[in-house]
Amino acid sequence: MARVTERPPLPTATVGATTVDAPPAARAAAAPTVAPSVVDSTSDVTRPPQPVVPGTEWFVRRIHRPLNQLWARGFRFLFVLDAVGLFGMMVAINLARFGFDWPTYGPSHYWIGFSIATGIHLTINYLAGLYDREPRLGSRPWLPRALVAMTIGVATQGLASYLVLERYLMPRLNLAVFTFAGVAVLVFNRRMSLVLANRRKGPPRVVLVGSDTDVKLAAAHLAESDRDAIVVGHTPTPDTLDELVESTHASDVLLLDVAAFGSVFPEPLTSLEERGVGFLQRISARETLLGLQAVRQVAGMPFVRFRAHTVPSYKLRLKRMFDLVIVVVTAPVWLVAVGLLSLFVLVRAGRPVLYRQRRVGRDGEHFNLLKFRTMIRDAESAGAQLASRRDPRVVHGLMWMRETRLDELPQLFHVVRGHMSLVGPRPERPDLVDAITRTVPGYVRRNELPPGLTGLAQVSGRYATDAEYKLGYDLQYIVNWSLGLDVEILARTLWVVLTRRV
User: Fold this and answer.
1) Residue 500 and residue 373: Cα distance in Å, rounded?
2) Is 305:293 a contact under the CB 8 Å cutoff?
3) How far is it, in rounded angstroms, from Cα 118 to Cα 359?
4) What is the distance between the alpha carbons of residues 156 and 396, in angstroms, rounded to a whole number?
5) Is residue 47 very low, low, confident or very high in pLDDT (cuts 50, 70, 90)?
6) pLDDT category, 36, cuts 50, 70, 90?
7) Start-end ranges of CATH 3.40.50 in the chain?
8) Are 205 and 251 in contact (CB under 8 A)?
């Protein structure tokens, strides 16, 4: 329990029609500083641009701005800290065990092995999300994630040593010690990064959204348990949230109304997130009973994190790597299958063998989808329409290709090019997307991931399943994405193909 101190009543300042608590510490945190905004290596919080002190122009131009550009492109100082810490830990373990007389090999063998091992661990850390920006309020504990990443990294070291390099990157008995020592390094670096960020930027500046009763209760919890967080404003509704955050230089927004999400997505959530403002939604016991697992705590209050984009960039890259590995490994099989099916379609339906259709891809971008033509020519001369299970427009003898979904096989070329993924929400036509969006709220959010050859909606639903029900499957997939889920859906797709269950 944090120590509670008596404080005088907070002076107030009016922002628009909203009364804002403005403590002296908050006004001090908003005072001009030396340099423009800097993004912390583990945080989504960005300080507003500040005036440049005369005489520091060279530092701002030569060092500060280039660093900001690197951070905007995904670089983190944690990369450097982890590399130095992990490499140094390997050396320290060897010194503690052998002194300066390292056995079996010369020093160059160890330096090269330690360098390769460091690169493996940095890659695993990135794919495990250890460099994903976390909000300064309600951040998840690092220890479980660091332990998982180190375990996977050590296992990868062993596989690389045995299968590829034919030599161990470090003495085998060192690996057990290094696993736990490496976890300590990773957690320490992130804790120190957060401490330094708080010292440099000042405490998080929080805006509360909710009724007066909710605001007073949350402010009391923050004052008692989170002395480093400052409440700089509050508003009963999100209507003026954008202006309030701008005027108070807030770093975080706490949505206290459990029904407030519909009024902040997609705006102002998207625009504020782009400026580095963290969003947290309070949840009640009713939402917890639904099985929410990623619950965070702020001053003892349960919250979930809101993001304009559910899937972070490191997961998108991991998904892309998985797609490419599967496509390349299976290329001899599917390339032959595409060739044989092309000849079959040519005989049954004539030219053209392939059918091109405009579809909506990731983030609403359009692309020309390829598939084998199984319908008669000019099948949509009367306009776009959804296909049915026994569609009379299908060419005789080609219905089996639709039932087994082999007509979608040419879309593997889209996976190679990056327009699609093996698993994801199915791409729809722009006119149908526009029509469904008007009737199904949240439909556009399914476009956060690249569209897939198959998806959770395809292995769980049917052709006749309503678009809103399919959206539920698609959003469930996006929120819970993992490599294991992709493998499961691919396996279920094979069963659907074999049983022709559509």
Assistant:
1) 19
2) no
3) 42
4) 51
5) very low
6) very low
7) 1-31+203-308
8) yes
**DSSP per-residue letters across 11-65:** PEEEETTEEEE--HHHHHHTS--SSS--B-TTB--BPPP-PPPTT-HHHIIIIIH
CB atoms closer than 10 angstroms to residue 248: 23
3-state class (DSSP) for residue 366: strand
CB 192 within 8 A of CB 85: no
Instruction: List strand residue ranges (DSSP E) for 275-434, in order.
Output: 278-282, 296-298, 301-306, 354-360, 366-372, 421-423
Output the six-digit token pair for 18.
């909203």
Amino acid in the structure at residue 219? A
Radius of gyration of the chain (CA): 27
Q: Given phi > 0 = left and psi -120 to 50 = alpha, else beta, which region is 74?
A: left
CATH architecture of the domain formed by 1-31+203-308: 3-Layer(aba) Sandwich (3.40)
Looking at residue 410, its pLDDT comes to 94
Q: Note the pLDDT tens digit of each residue in 406-449.
A: 889 999 999 999 999 999 998 988 888 888 887 776 677 788 88
Contact 167, 113 (CB under 8 A): yes
Residue 20 backbone phi and psi in degrees, to 5: -120, 125
Alpha carbon 204 to its chain centroid, in Å, reads 23
Q: Which residues pair with 306 in a beta bridge?
A: 279
Any idea how long the chain is? 502
Tell me the residue type at 33. T
Tell me how far CA of residue 423 lies from CA of 11, 461, 498, in angstroms. 54, 15, 18
Helix ranges (H only) for 133-268 are 142-159, 172-201, 212-225, 241-248
Of the candidates 103, 109, 92, which has an alpha carbon nearest to the alpha carbon of residue 165?
109
Helix axes 313-329, 331-349, angle to 10 degrees: 70
Q: Residue 496 in contact with residue 459, Cβ under 8 Å?
A: yes
- Whether the per-residue pLDDT at 260 is higher than 80: the answer is no
Dihedral angle sign, alpha carbons of residues 29, 34, 38, 40: negative
Structure tokens at 457: 């909606």
